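Marked as duplicate of an earlier ticket. Keeping the data here for the record.
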Amino acid sequence: MQLSLVVILGAAIFTTIAAAPALPQALPGCRDKCGDLTIPFPFGIGDGCYLRPEFNLTCDQSTTPPSANLTGHTIRISDFYLAEAELQVMTFTSRDCYDTKGLRTNRNTPILWLPPPYTISDTKNKFVAVGCDTYALFQGFRGEERFITGCMSLCDSLGSVEYQDSYCSGIGCCQTSIPSGLKNCTVQLSSYYNHTSIMDFNPCSYAFTVEQGQFKFNSTSFQQLNSISQIPMVINWEIGDETCDIAAQKREGFACKADYSKCVNRNTNINGSGYICQCLPGYRGNPYLPHGCQDFDECKALNPCSIGSCVNLDGNYSCKCPKGYKNDGTNKQSCIKDEPSNLLLIISLGMFHLRVTGIIIFMVIYI
């Protein structure tokens, strides 16, 4: 599903990333939609429609449109990135607000707890804090080990923020990376001066973990964030707690069912990390379903041959080159100008030299 809850700075804060065509499908006979969201196997709604209990989803009809949640949790799924074994979920923002006397008027400390096999993606998210009198802490656990990171953001005027427009540099906005393999996170916000010196344009601080590319900072972020309670974040998932080699030996429980699929070990820095399934290059679809990976027609979708005509092949393509051009290399996926090689040129010059020499010798002998 393409994310609709996005706000672009100036007009909104979050930007929508275009979704790929909806190729993943549910098991035959199972519900494949919750509102506008397509539910791909191994996830499913209802008995017999998901691979394992941890992939069981609930479709909440009380929201508009209906929303898919992890069963037994209030974690709302807003998109599936099946090839990467990732979910886009909506998480709450943290805020810390003060009045003109420096008294706190509003504060919340959202906590996210993820059940196995889900972890917070360290490669697809950033921890962000917004405010001109702000320091923010991010705390999470990997097993029993605790990790803490954070950043601070300061500024004296709205003009200094406008100068930093679209940059999270520490002036009005700061950001940092998060550790890998975390099962939960807690966000805490505080202020150095209770926002008293900047009350006219920034009475609140904000902090959140957000999917990269979904937040762009500018001077209107203070007002926009005041009306936003949830933002998109990415979490990882995996199949079981075995490597590909061990899982494949069991056959019956092996999740990579499709022809033209492969198994990839997932490394989340947690003992017993499992695996994920992907379609082979040149194929698209759902590797968890029999016959779920289908040939991807690069010629129609990408038109990759800038010179010549494109010929689709099973799992690949080639470029048929016009006269005066030849395929570049052995993969036949591009055309280059067909120019004589240096060797051919040397041979041609040698033959020309022999002919000239022969003519001269003939003339010397017989004339």
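See parent ticket for discussion. Helices lie at 158-163, 221-226, 244-250, 298-301, 342-366.
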